[in-house]
Amino acid sequence: MGRLLTLALGMAMAAAPAQLDAASALSIKNYRQVYSAMSTVTGVPKTNPVVSNYYNQAFRRLSETGSVGSVSGPLLLTTTILASRFCTEFIKAEAVLPKDQRKAHQMVAFDQTQAALTTDVLTSVLNNYGMLFWGRTP
Predict the structure, then answer these.
(1) What's the N-to-C CA distance of the chain in angstroms?
(2) The model's pTM
(3) Nearest-5° angle of CA 109, CA 138, CA 5?
(4) Helices marked H in the chain — which ranges?
(5) How confident is the prediction for the chain on average, in pLDDT?
(6) Segment 66-76, tens digit of pLDDT
(7) DSSP letter string over 22-38?
């Protein structure tokens, strides 16, 4: 599960930049948008106590307005920790589903050791996360 979480966090942090036209203003997601986007992508409800407890005590370190100037070390750390909470709950939820009902882990045998995470399995998970987060494979 540790390797999957590391993979998930890496995917979340490496999102491709959006295409901007000349009239667009640069911005980042504000604290409400970050929370909603993570919930939508993972399917983990915002009411999940693991994510909501952290969010409720940490959201003030996220951007209030979405201004690029609000990017800071605490914002990045808070976003990473919040993403890890969502990803952990997402992986737990997927682990109990039949393989054909999973969004990202169809090839993962959660009842086996990490040795079962072959290159083919990890590539499949990476591609599935790419589709969830970016709408395309990496």
Answers:
(1) 21
(2) 0.78
(3) 40
(4) 2-13, 31-42, 49-58, 73-95, 119-134
(5) 87
(6) 999 999 999 99
(7) TTPPP----HHHHHHHH
